[in-house]
Structure formats: C-alpha cells, structure tokens
Design brief:
The complex is a heterodimer of chains A (113) and B (114). Chain A has 113 residues and is an all-beta fold. In chain A, strands 2, 4, 5, 9, 10 and 11 form a six-stranded mixed beta sheet that branches. Chain A is globular and about 45 Å long. In chain A, 35% of the residues are buried. Chain B has 114 residues and is mostly beta strands. Chain B is built from no helices and eleven strands. In chain B, the strands form two sheets. In chain B, strands 2, 4, 5, 6, 9, 10 and 11 form a seven-stranded mixed beta sheet that branches. In chain B, a hairpin with a 6-residue loop joins strand 5 and strand 6. Chain B is globular. Classes of the chains: A mainly beta (113), B mainly beta (114). The interface between A and B is medium-sized, with 24 and 26 residues.
C-alpha cells in the first residue's frame, strides 16, 4: 500500500519568515495530494491540494509543489503569522482509489511572535 | 455548510467493554471514514464506507468493526475495548468517488480505555 513520510515533525519559525514542510510517497500511481491543517483542539481542514498533472499551485501565502519523478511534494507558507501555528498533514491517494487518503505523520508548526 | 457530528467528545470505558462511536453527516455524502489519531503517527484509516451496508478495511482494522445502515450514519464498534485503543477517533465524509473530494472531519471523540 501507499506510504507517506513527512518531515520535519516539529518546526518553529519567526513571524514573517517562510516555512516548508516536505512529504515523500511510495506509490507512483498516486495522483492527488492534499494538505490539511489542524489547529489546537479543532478538526483537520483542507487548505490546499494538487493533482499530478500540475507541478505547482498557489493560494495567497500558501503554495504546494509536486515532483512526480522524485515522488515528493512540499507545502510552502510565506510571511508566516501566529494563526498559521497548527499541525499540518500531507496526504496521498493509494493507487486505484479516488476516495481513500493515506496521511503523513504531521508537522507541528509554531510561529513565534 | 457541511456538518459532521460525533456522538461524544470524551468517553471513558473499561477493558472488555463494547464501545460504539457514532458519526452523522448532513450533506448526503457517499463516503464515510473512521480514523484514529495518535501523536507522531498522524491519521490512520480504520475503515471506510462508500455506500449503505458497504465497508472496506483501512490500514488498521484489527479490533474494530463498522456499521452503515443509513447513508448519513457510520458507526465504529470496538467489540472488546483494550487499553491500546485509547486514542482520538475522527470521523470524516466526502461527496463521491467520481472526483477527488475534500474530506470533512468531525470534532473527534477522545476515548480512554481503563
């Protein structure tokens, strides 16, 4: 089955700096890669996703890049703000399933004021 | 606005008890999922269902079963709770299999098994 590895497990940045979280996946047939954000005590919510026919996608201060050859994808947050502090999960679809997601282990991002 | 609700936020049970966790979604979603969330392990899929009375095993189904008698409701059952099932349980739903759909999560149930 699909295996998704996520790094780093914790990340601290100064407010205004950029943050990058990286994920690798094992199943070369995976073709959908969403990112979820979970604030403390709240439920995970989708923040951005990318499909395999696209190399990069941007939404205001967040962007995701995908390298299918190397089987890795990354989340980039620019001009970080305290409200960006949360746990971020990457995910990928196991081959043959448009419904299922395999999640990474999560990254605790702390934005220091 | 999609709403996914779970029957309890906190639950304390004893080893060997049968435990039911219920999830309800109000947006006519086809797919429903049960995950457990443990520190450092992310979200791990226990079971999912893509239709009434249909279920498929996820990555960690051992010790769990599920039931989906109505489209809006998906239950997770711990037949005989054990201490290693102490965890946060998250339910989610998504629209259909046709395209890649966002999963909408419930607030979670923190289960403690003593």
């Amino acid at each position: 089955g699909e295996n998704v590895e996520q790094h780093p497990s914790t990340l601290s940045v100064q407010e205004g700096d950029s943050a990058v979280i990286k994920c690798t996946y094992s199943d070369s047939a995976s073709n959908y890669f969403p990112w979820y954000k979970q604030e403390l005590g709240k439920r995970p919510q989708l923040i951005i996703d990318i499909r395999s026919n696209v190399g990069e996608k941007k939404d205001q201060r967040i962007a995701v890049t995908l390298n299918k050859t190397a089987k890795h994808f990354s989340l980039h947050i620019t001009e970080t703000q305290p409200e960006d502090s949360a746990v971020y999960f990457c995910a990928a679809t196991p081959s043959g399933s448009a419904r299922q997601l395999t999640f990474g282990s999560g990254t605790q991002l702390t934005v220091l004021p | 606005d999609v709403k996914v609700t779970q029957s309890s936020r906190y639950l304390v049970k004893r080893t060997g008890e049968k435990v039911f966790l219920e999830c309800v979604q109000d947006m006519d979603h086809e797919n429903m999922f049960w995950y457990r969330q443990d520190p450092g392990l992310g979200l791990r899929l226990i079971y999912f269902s893509y239709d009434v009375k249909m279920k498929e095993k996820g990555d960690i189904p051992e010790g769990y079963s599920v039931s989906r008698e109505k489209k809006e409701r998906f239950s997770l059952i711990l037949e005989s709770a054990s201490t290693n099932q102490t965890s946060m349980y998250l339910c989610a739903s998504s629209l259909s299999q046709a395209v890649y759909n966002e999963q909408f999560f419930g607030p979670g149930t923190r289960l403690t098994v003593l």
